[in-house]
UniProtKB/TrEMBL annotation:
Homodimer. Pathway: Carbohydrate biosynthesis; gluconeogenesis; Carbohydrate degradation; glycolysis; D-glyceraldehyde 3-phosphate from glycerone phosphate: step 1/1. This is Triosephosphate isomerase. It comes from the Bacteria. Belongs to the triosephosphate isomerase family. Keywords: Cytoplasm, Gluconeogenesis, Glycolysis, Isomerase. It is an enzyme of class 5 (isomerase). It holds the Pfam family TIM. CDD domains: TIM. Transmembrane segments: none annotated. The keyword Isomerase applies. It catalyses: D-glyceraldehyde 3-phosphate = dihydroxyacetone phosphate. One of its GO terms (molecular function) is triose-phosphate isomerase activity.
Amino acid sequence: MQAPILAANWKMQLDIAESAALAKKIANELPRGNGTVILCPTVAAMPAVSLAVSGREDILLGAQDCHNQTKGTFTGATSPAVVAELGCTYVIVGHSERRQLFGETDEVVAAKVAAAVAQGLIPILCVGETADERKKGESETVVTRQLTTALASVPPEAPCIVAYEPLWAISHGAPHPATKAEVTPILKQITTLLEKRSATPVLYGGSVLPDNVQEFVTPDAFAGALIGGASLTVESFLGIVATARRTYAI
């Protein structure tokens, strides 16, 4: 994994045709360069997106979630083995929406991380505190708990990515985007916790935009970004990639 790592999380915002069209535009217009570009469409759109980016070995695929079992009576779930079979290299695990909307606990997230690693996938482990937890001064406690629980059974040498999502700075409910100064203490804490996993990159995932990515994605800060809404148009996503590449080339 070469920094900067730019992962586009399309969530459930695009249908199959829209996903394929966006992927095709990105494949056609993205200049080759430093860094790692990851597209995370829905599982249903994965084959179409894979076809759209064929020939671009520098554009990799990731799933938005997976189950913690490879087979079983789990209606509607996606096996990590199937995620790997679809050609994914990465899988997002523990996203704030999964934790909040689907009630995923730290223990569930930990099981998913372990299952992903067992299938040869690279988990993009999301951690982060809510606005209420931040207000109570619990940011470090929450992030430490999430991170240590999720990685407890994962060997230090296993490839993994951590994405810090400050929920209080995410666009759909945030009064204002975060500043680098506000998130740096947590970045330092995460880096310390990952001391035995020195090869684990840390991404930023708090309302990343073309005009603020250079504040967070730099060699002395985050190794990349997990991008939501701004990855849904080719112009904004390629703008983020171009800016991040420049900051890492300096």
